[in-house]
Design brief:
The chain is an alpha/beta fold and 544 residues long. It contains 21 helices and 20 strands.
Length: 544
């Protein structure tokens, strides 16, 4: 039976596990929009700007563990989405990004809305191509989905001319390639033997910034088998170790001196994932002590040796490799000593968290300090909530109290503001739990259109805006570097106070109820009301 190429496209989306198409349509996307009229099983999620649409697809992909699909409008729409595309590449999000292209029959004349989409997308995607025949739509899409999910995961791009999608096609959708699942590294036993030769009190595990949630079981197994603390990066894209596990050592600030201090005296450091030594700004410090052996477990050879030469490098499924190493290591560790160390570690960790929380709560002066405001939000969150974060308000002492769960915490790893709010909305389409977007006032203004999408589709997204009316993290960097604007006390272009942004009115204009909360009690009440309401809510919290 003859069908259109766009019908084959929808068949492939269904087969690849896509349930939601995120986009902002234009005239070049009409063939796809027409095909969706008779596809009630596929939900089209409208974003009011392309950056919002792409970030929603990013959040859906991260929360669901599947490859997301987004459709943008021509060269201008792709350009609008470029910032969030950069963020998706940095975070290693599996995405198939498409954009409508002008009719191929007059592309040579450079018509209105046309552009070299492949050249625009190429530098920030794993693969970019333009489909010129209906017969190539299916194979190109299958290749795109395979590449997006293959480690290192990331976005790919396809330009889809509108006339190609409308062309008749007799062939059915091609099947998926049978991709063999990567197993553990055959050297997992060797890693276990190396670790068994070290003092367990002088071994640490560093969680790289790109670890998927499914690696968590292997990480936990190795940490518990050897009794090793696990550290993450403050700007890591996702959580892959449970924050309530006693072997969680917390996040390390993106500062080589801080990382060096945490690892000083270690005999061995295990890096799990692509990149674990992350710093901003530059500091002339070697984060890995010269006397520490480096054991690197990665999903792809591309990561090996990128930061430091490895004394032992293992390539394979990260979670499976760590689990195999843990199984081989366990018999070499005295069980009584392991149990005693675990008990002591759990008690120390509990005391530390209680003491830290008490110290933060003790500073109740208004407006609240960032640590106190964030802690009040964390204590009001229900179990199982997902956090999408892009605010530096979480970078203080309170960062050690964020009990992030694998698959339930994401950070704007690419440093692109405006991703967390739409990502939270996208995530809310894939999980039944409430989703919290933790935002600074500056970052909240990059993609406030996401509030409208949350309202339209009645997603339970709670946007928490920590408002200090300035780009505080930038001012702190200026102070740390001794910049002229900091020394003069005149921060050029770093204030958002004249006029102040009226977040209550902004939320109302986009159909979202809002509240302002100044004290810890008010924050708890505002979040309780938001949870009871069921739909989206914006909670604004003034902070110092």
């Amino acid at each position: 039976m003859t069908r259109r190429a766009c019908d084959v496209l929808l068949d492939i989306l269904r087969d690849e596990g896509v349930t939601h198409i995120f986009g902002n349509p234009g005239s070049t996307e009409m063939p796809l929009m027409d095909a969706l009229v008779d596809a009630p099983d596929l939900t089209y999620v409208l974003g009011l700007q392309e950056a919002t649409a792409l970030a929603m697809a990013d959040g859906w992909a991260l929360a669901s563990g599947r490859t997301g699909f987004v459709n943008l409008h021509a060269a201008g729409g792709l350009g609008n989405a470029m910032g969030t595309l950069v963020a998706a590449r940095a975070s290693g999000t599996p995405l198939v990004v498409t954009a409508g292209q002008q009719d191929t029959r007059h592309l040579m004349t450079e018509p209105w809305l046309a552009g070299d989409l492949v050249a625009i997308a190429g530098p920030v995607t794993k693969w970019a191509a333009e489909v010129r025949r209906a017969e190539d739509v299916g194979p190109a899409l299958r290749r795109a989905f395979a590449l997006a999910a293959t480690p290192p995961a990331g976005p790919v791009f396809l330009s889809l001319p509108m006339d190609v999608l409308d062309q008749p096609l007799a062939a059915p959708a091609p099947p998926r390639s049978a991709l063999a699942r990567t197993g553990p590294s055959p050297d997992a036993g060797l890693l276990a033997r190396r670790l068994a030769g070290h003092d367990p009190d002088r071994v640490a595990i560093l969680m790289a910034d790109d670890l998927p949630a499914e690696a968590a079981a292997g990480l936990v197994a190795l940490a518990e088998a050897g009794g090793y603390p696990v550290f993450g990066s403050q700007v890591g894209a996702r959580a892959a170790f449970p924050g309530d596990n006693p072997w969680w050592g917390g996040v390390l600030r993106a500062d080589f001196a801080v990382i060096r201090a945490a690892l000083e005296g270690m005999e061995a450091v295990v890096v799990a994932g692509g990149r674990a030594f992350i710093a901003y700004p530059y500091r002339d410090v070697r984060p890995l002590p010269e006397t520490a052996a480096l054991y690197h477990v990665a999903a792809t050879p591309v990561a090996i040796g990128r930061e430091f030469p490895a004394d032992l490098a293992l390539v394979g499924d990260i979670g499976a490799t760590l689990a195999a190493a843990a199984a081989a290591l366990a018999p070499a560790v005295d069980p009584a000593r392991r149990a005693a160390r675990a008990t002591a570690r759990a008690a120390d960790r509990a005391r530390h968290r209680a003491t830290l929380a008490g110290a933060i709560r003790a500073d109740a002066a208004l407006p609240l300090a960032p640590d106190a405001a964030v802690l009040a939000v964390l204590e009001a969150m229900p179990a199982g909530a997902l956090i999408a974060n892009d605010t530096a308000a979480t970078f203080g002492r309170v960062s050690d109290l964020i009990a992030a769960a694998p698959g339930r915490y994401f950070f704007a790893r690419g440093g692109v503001l405006g991703c967390a709010l739409p990502a939270a909305v996208g995530a809310a389409f894939s999980i039944p739990a409430p989703v919290f977007a933790l935002l600074g006032d500056g970052g909240a203004m990059y993609s406030p259109q996401a509030l409208w999408s949350a309202a339209r589709y009645r997603r339970q997204v709670i946007a928490v805006v920590f408002n200090n009316r300035r780009y505080d993290v930038l001012q702190r960097v200026a102070r740390d570097l001794g910049c002229a604007n900091a020394l003069a006390g005149r921060f050029v272009g770093m204030a958002v106070d004249d006029p102040p942004v009226d977040f209550q009115a902004l939320a109302a204009a986009l159909g979202v109820p809002a509240a302002r909360a100044g004290t810890a009690a008010e924050i708890g009440a505002a979040i309780a009301a938001a949870l009871a309401r069921g739909g989206p809510t914006l909670v604004e919290i003034p902070i110092r």
